[in-house]
Amino acid sequence: MSLLIKSARVIDPNSPHNGKTVDILIEDGVIQSIAKNIDKKGIPNFEAGNLHVSPGWFDMQVNFRDPGFEYKEDLNTGTQAAAFGGFTAVACLPSTNPPIHTKSEVEYILNKAKSLKKNGVDVYPIGALSQNLEGKDMAELYDMHLSGAVGFTDCKKTESNAGLLMRGSLYAKNFNGVILTFCDEKSISQGGKMNEGPTSTMLGLKGIPALAEELMVARNINIAEYTESRVHIASLSTAKSVDLVRKAKARKLNITASVNAYNLTLDDSLLKGFETNYKVNPPLRTKADIEALKKGLADGTIDCITSDHSPEDIENKMVEFDHAASGIIGLETMYALLNTSLGKTLSAEELVQKISINPRVLFNLEVPTIKEEAKANLTLFDPQLEWTFEEKNIHSKSKNTPLLGTKFKGKALGIYNKKALVSAK
Fold first, then answer.
1. Is the overall model pTM greater than 0.85, yes or no?
2. Alpha-carbon span 85 to 273, nearest angstrom
3. Beta-bridge mates of residue 30
4. Which stretches of the chain score pLDDT less than 70?
5. Residue 376 CA: distances (Å) to CA of 48, 373, 412
6. Which active-site residues does the annotation give?
7. Choosing a second label site near 109 at 20 to 30 A (CA), which of 145, 291, 342, 421?
8. Structural domains in the chain (count)
């Protein structure tokens, strides 16, 4: 469809119009004109107070539970949640049944996503590193790569088999593939329910030491150094982990890193009421860890921010804290949570870099740019809009979030992608 976006401030470090307030004319999915004032009769206008526009946001770490666990989420509801949150693209983890561990599952994801064009969201599968996510035999990495997988990981099962991670890294290096690692030494964290510290002691809950993450971060950095391959450290949550990645980057290793929005904004003191929707993996850490994560974002140690969208049905959450599943939904609230909580940690351009540009660079994907003759892939948003997150705003099948009733500043207003406008309502 054609669209005229009126009086929008461009937030795009790669655009010649960055920081300017302009009109943007889109015809047949392509940006035809950008100017101070465009008058075009007969096509729909998109107007809003304090309207901002950026390259479409990309969440590189979501769980859509499809195939196998569609009662928690499926590709249709997942992409609807993404569109409401302002995302034009997501990369989905292979935490499905069966896992995304052959080209058949990769093609299933891509073909089903194509049928959901109206939702306006591109879906990129991440393949499993090992067959059945068992950590034993390497999965069909090259076949999945050829079919469209953008990376490989064994998700939060954590790759305890260092030799498999090493061999997978060497193999993926042949086609410039990236391995995503989630760092948790299970022999240390096993049985832990929350961050180890004063709050866990007070509540009488077994803690998860920061050491469990940091040992694996150090190990995976060493493997990346040995193999000279691309390794991504996902879901950083501790101060020492940030420092380890910072030092690795100073040594020019091919390391990238990301952090989940909840680890950037919520701390472990929130678990004092045993609210299971605050139970996540990695666990909420301390305020000191949050400050270290923010510094890592600001100085470029941490490349990307993710929602770690993890839908869980009510039977897995409305139970005793010890037995509750970890995870919260995050697509609908990620931008609002970051914009409300980060303050001056990142400029508007830097935030767009972390949630739009860097994830695509990491996966070797084309980065959309706001310029004439470019394909229109846009997020429309208002960073000052105040709103309250209510159940009607949840588009996911699952409702596992502790943020209902939270007053936010900043909201996505819509996305334009796949030649279609999708309003966030």
1. yes
2. 28
3. 27, 375
4. 158-159
5. 19, 9, 17
6. 308
7. 421
8. 2
